[in-house]
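Supplementary material to the annual report.
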Amino acid sequence: KAGVTQTPRYLIKTRGQQVTLSCSPISGHRSVSWYQQTPGQGLQFLFEYFSETQRNKGNFPGRFSGRQFSNSRSEMNVSTLELGDSALYLCASIGGGFQETQYFGPGTRLLVL
Amino acid sequence: QKEVEQDPGPLSVPEGAIVSLNCTYSNSAFQYFMWYRQYSRKGPELLMYTYSSGNKEDGRFTAQVDKSSKYISLFIRDSQPSDSATYLCAMRAGTGNQFYFGTGTSLTVIP
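Predicted assembly:
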């Protein structure tokens, strides 16, 4: 079974721009979570989608948004980029039946200049 | 108070040592506990999964959960240089609930 894929793997943007990141979950998984990871703050939860609906949301400003499509693929968007948005953005696919847990993709490394 | 607390380290041990990694938590509703390993510039990979209290062993790795103390541990026996990574604990109350992560402990195993 293919793992979680994220595109692009690397991005360089400038302040004020917007960015869209994509995530394809493991086949059969219907839930996707997004996280921001920085050296200082660790792994911070952005939001989770299940069957195209946002199920949980972290404490991030409205500039961070996401959506999920009917095929479970998900995108997250960050508008009006700030220098502090530079981070590794991780997508996690949730599944596993009784032992439901998260399986992470390789991440998208975003650098905001 | 954070939901999950984890000592960030760094932790440095000689090859062959037994490593103990720990997390504490505040939410007594947490029932599902996980340990992830993250190599530099990679996504976290699931190492161990435990439901409720007790021990679980997988090769050189043992996960322990003590719900009465709100304390979980990961033990690594016969540590290897390839175990050098950041270890993250994670937990959740139930299906559909948010996952909460520790900040991660950086481990270096010296040959």
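The longest strand of chain B covers residues 85-92.
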